[in-house]
Amino acid sequence: MKVFLGIDWGGTYIKAGIVNSSGKILKKIVYSSSQLKRRQAFTGEIKRLKDTFKKYNIKAVGIGAPGIINVERGSIYYLPNVPGWENSPLKTMLEKELKIPVFIDNDANIFALAEVRKGAGRGMSRAIFLTLGTGLGGAVIFNGQIIEGKTSASELGHVVIDVNGKKCGCGGYGCIETFTGSNHLLERYRQLKKIKTAPKEVKEIFDKAKTGKKEALIVWQEFSKYLGKFLAGMINIFNPQVIILGGGVSGAFNLFRPLLWQAIKAQAMWPQLTGLKLVKAKLKDAGIIGAALLAKDKLEADTRATNADKRKPSPVRISA
Ligand SMILES: [Zn+2]
Predict the structure, then answer these.
(1) Which CATH architecture has domain 122-280?
(2) DSSP letters of 184-250?
(3) What angle, rounded to 10 degrees, do the helices at 39-52 and 90-98 form?
(4) Structural domain boundaries in the chain
(5) How far is the CA of 179 from the centre of ligand 1 (A)?
(6) What is the pTM of this model?
(7) 207 alpha carbon to ligand 1 midpoint, in Å?
(8) Ligand 1 mean position to 135 CA, how many Å?
(9) Considering just the CA atoms, what is the radius of gyration of the chain in Å?
């Protein structure tokens, strides 16, 4: 049986799993990411992992990494929350050790691929996926595939929604991420409540809103207004069949869904909304599944390209 090793490289944990061709996890292992921060430790552990799973016929490795990736070369430009990985040729490093193909993409792209193939967007070929957390990760699936550039494209969180907005982690100003990120929501709640320190978790604002507390409700109303306007733009561009929301902040999905839908409806071009679904992400291990499916897709595409090359007629030599 052909299987793939999918690796989900998160801020707190690195999860790895053996996944079959239809996206089912057969074995899973979880590490603390602090253990594997250094390049040496990372490649060493992945090598050990492959050896542990040697009874499986692993065809390729897929990795979802938390940062800006050169997907063409499989190298890391940088990881915002993991220092020391600037300009790392991760694909080359790992292929040398593992002796099998390795493919890397941005984690949001990987999550989106898993949700469209196996989760909340199953059966859909056009989807917008967002991870609502500290930041705003995004991905676009078109014709069933991740929209790809040379680097990890679809940095949706860094679309400007307010030209006079505050500074964003990307270096720009007024990005949608500065309105939907969990830190912004906590700070906005603190301002509205006129309290000294903000609550620690967004869940608190969610719980307060459920009991009808005014300031908490305002936070979610504003959140939905900005996110809805932003999504309307994405809908007008990509005409998705489904919008899938994941990440910690999506815990409040049932609460903000009607507000968000209202904001989308008020802004998007109405024909684009026909049949559009707005759903919450479904998969627990989207990172592992998506990374493995990426490896499968890329390996198949590489094989097709090689075979097409072989079929080309060899040039005819004409001797004088
Ligand atoms: Zn930004």
Answers:
(1) 2-Layer Sandwich (3.30)
(2) HHHHHHHHHHT-SS--S-HHHHHHHHHTT-HHHHHHHHHHHHHHHHHHHHHHHHH--SEEEEESGGG
(3) 40
(4) 2-110+284-309, 122-280
(5) 10
(6) 0.91
(7) 28
(8) 9
(9) 21
Please state the CATH superfamily assignment of the domain spanning residues 2-110+284-309 in this structure: ATPase, nucleotide binding domain (3.30.420.40)
pLDDT of residue 198: 95
Instruction: Classify 283 as helix, strand or coil.
Output: coil
3-class state of residue 89 by DSSP:
coil
What angle (nearest 5°) sits at the alpha carbon of residue 245, between those of residues 251 and 259? 75
Distance CA 217, CA 213 (A): 6
Burial class (CB in 10 A: 0-12, 13-18, 19+), 125: middle
Which band of pLDDT confidence, cut at 50, 70 and 90, is reported for residue 142?
A: very high
Q: How would residue 37 be classed by pLDDT, with cut points 50, 70 and 90?
A: confident
